[in-house]
Write a structure and sequence with these properties.
alpha/beta; 18 helices; 21% strand; disordered N terminus
Length: 511
């Protein structure tokens, strides 16, 4: 689907990104450990077999996010082995975890070089070439808010950090750390205690912004997009509210230009087609989009799915203009959330997958989700438990990806109405939308409840269907393999009757 790169061509330089890319997130460290266990030998990113890349970057996937490739912090790993809450989370995921399995957080970055355990920068280049040969782009991480306590900047450029005093350290030891007779503030989200293994960068500092801009501009040669961790934390007003007088640049540094316009602008000056996606919360997504991001997390959709919200709430959520929806990152799970197989039953999971992957925007598939993995692995671990594969779910996801590769997410997207009758309002449980392009028409209908529902879908997105359509119309369900033949004249005049069991789905291609 939407493959634009030629073998040997730097990905993303010859053409823009697809409007609605599908991204496969890989927890790189534990994924590689699994491959080693199968192969019976040590492996780096340079040693991944072709058939594994074929699977990771199979048709329907537009980009692969290799999460957690940057150099881990030995000091951060030591802290992760000592903090009780972190130890508890690690043991819950891997009951036989040893100190060797605790490799440090993927977001406690010692340096923006590929960790030697993964093969270093040379091995990443091999992996990127393997993806490019399959027409697939590479996404990596950028963490703007904090770095590891043994990052080179700690000694070479201490002015880039938020500092405290010895009194601060004595009064609030969980929020500060002394290194070489300097007291540094630990990184934090203003609504939670400080993270124990990272130091807070001063995002209001002009020097830090310049250093971050230089760093990110350099990363444009090594990947095609950055997923930016907790991107809202370095917005000027958020940062100042969090740190107050400790923010050296004050409430409006650089005359209010903003951290992200500075950093994104530097990268785009080098590579205009480079993509930026924000992990974002607190309804600050519009602000981040205005500051240059291509897309932001749609946590709202995820929350609707998890709490089994009525279909009407989902319809209202996705009623935003298509251009706004195109600038979302949507998911059923990711490394920060519980595994979907542990949250949903089988039918609910399938309905959620079809919803997320047939709506506009960036769709995120988490590695292992298609196999029904149930254990969420903390980002501090380098190994995960053995789990049995859900072969039925894998076949379903394979069919879904094949449908995407066939053009489901291409063209114009339209939310359409499903109507019931005075004595049967079960249609309220259904949500439906169409994708229309020059080459294809697709209709998606999802029952978001556990009860049977039926209604008439009004194909408003296909207003060009002539009212006197006289030929039969064939609908192929790309997931079930069923075929439905309907009278074209009745279809054009009255719409399409559908009936679905609880959490049932249709992904129909019209012929």
């Amino acid at each position: 689907m939407n493959k634009v790169a030629e073998v040997g061509t730097p990905v993303g330089r010859s053409a823009g990104w697809p409007d609605h890319p599908v991204v496969h997130e890989i927890f790189t460290w534990v994924w590689l450990a699994d491959l080693e266990r199968v192969a019976g030998r040590t492996m780096t990113l340079a040693d991944v077999p072709d058939e594994v890349w074929d699977d990771v970057a199979r048709p329907g996937i537009d980009a692969v996010w290799l999460m957690g490739v940057w150099e881990r912090s030995p000091l951060g790993a030591a802290i992760a082995r000592a903090v009780p809450s972190m130890v508890e989370a690690q043991r819950a995921a891997l009951d036989d975890a040893t100190d060797a399995d605790v490799v440090g957080s993927a977001y406690c970055i010692r340096d923006y070089v590929v960790d030697p355990r993964l093969g270093g920068d040379e091995a990443l280049a091999v992996a990127r070439a393997a993806l490019a040969a399959r027409g697939v782009r590479l996404v990596l991480d950028f963490v703007p808010n904090h770095v590891a306590p043994d990052h080179p900047w700690v000694t070479s450029r201490p002015e880039l950090f938020v500092h405290g005093s010895r009194d601060d350290l004595e009064r609030d030891p969980p929020s500060f750390l002394e290194i070489d007779e300097r007291v540094f503030a630990l990184g934090r989200d203003p609504y939670f205690p400080a993270w124990p293994e990272v130091l807070q960068l001063d995002a209001s500092s002009a020097a830090l912004r310049a250093a971050a801009a230089e760093l990110v501009a350099g990363l444009t040669d090594r990947c095609d997009a950055l997923r930016c961790d907790m991107a809202m934390l370095v917005l000027d007003d958020v940062f100042h509210r969090t740190w107050g007088d400790r923010a050296s640049g004050g409430p409006a540094p650089d005359g209010g230009i903003g951290y992200w316009p500075t950093v994104i602008g530097a990268a785009r000056a080098v590579r205009p087609d480079f993509a930026f996606w924000a992990e974002a919360y607190w309804d600050l997504e519009p602000v981040l989009l205005a500051e240059g991001f291509d897309a932001c997390y749609d946590k709202g959709l995820y929350d609707l799915l998890v709490r089994r919200a009525p279909a009407g709430e989902l319809r209202a959520h996705v009623a935003a203009p298509p251009d706004r929806q195109r600038r979302t990152v949507r998911f059923v799970e990711n490394h920060d959330e519980p595994r979907a197989a542990a949250v949903f039953d089988d039918a609910q999971h399938r309905a959620a997958l079809v919803s997320v992957f047939t709506l506009p925007g960036v769709a995120l598939l988490h590695e292992g989700e298609a196999d029904g993995r149930r254990v969420r692995v903390p980002v501090t671990l380098g190994r995960r438990p053995l789990e049995s594969r859900d072969t039925e779910l894998r076949r379903f996801v394979d069919r879904l990806l094949a449908a995407l590769a066939g053009g489901v997410r291409e063209g114009d997207w339209t939310l359409v109405n499903v109507e019931g009758w005075p004595d049967n309002q079960s249609a309220e449980r259904l949500a439906a939308w169409t994708w229309t392009s020059i080459e294809s028409r697709h209709l998606v209908v999802v029952n978001l409840s556990g009860e049977r529902a039926d209604g008439t879908v009004h194909l408003g997105g296909w207003a060009d269907l002539p009212a006197d359509l006289r030929t039969d119309v064939v609908f192929d369900d790309l997931l079930s393999g069923e075929r439905y033949v309907r009278d074209g004249q009745q279809l054009a005049a009255d719409g399409l009757y559908v009936a679905l069991d609880g959490h049932g789905v249709h992904l129909l291609r019209m012929r």
